[in-house]
């Protein structure tokens, strides 16, 4: 026993009425939807920027570093932006019932740990697919297509 007790997080209440039909029970509250959209867009933009920056810095080598580095940083931002906006920031702005910051940080950190584990765990799959595509295309064509897709990369 390590002394951790399960936590029960308070529900997010942004609607003034209860759902009236089955479809409304599956629709995310507006704050959750908006927070998820903002987090996803910001995370994806950051992932692409970091991947490209790392690609240039490594000269197109170290695929694992580019893939893991950009994903790990962007998922960190995504995890905290989504939870922070959806369950703290937007409810505060709209008169909803926000979570305590400590609860939001706990959930965001848990989400990030799962995303981190998945990102690292899929590295062998990334290398397998990369190798299979390079084999199928042939090394020269794969290299030429990569240079065409990333013209500012060093040769």
Provide mean pLDDT, rounded: 82
- Residue stretches low in confidence (pLDDT < 50, at least 5 long) are none
Structural class designation: mainly alpha
Helix % is over 70%
Helix and strand sequence:
HHHHHH
Question: For the terminal residues, how far apart are their CA atoms?
Answer: 56 Å
Largest sheet: none
Number of helices: 6
Short synopsis of the structure:
This protein is an all-alpha fold.
List key phrases describing it:
155 residues, mainly alpha, 72% helix
Task: Provide a descriptive summary of the structure in words.
- By secondary structure, the protein is mainly alpha-helical.
- It is built from six helices and no strands.
- It has helices at residues 22-25, 30-58, 63-94, 101-121, 123-137, 139-149.
- The chain is elongated, with a radius of gyration of 21 Å.
- The mean pLDDT is 82.
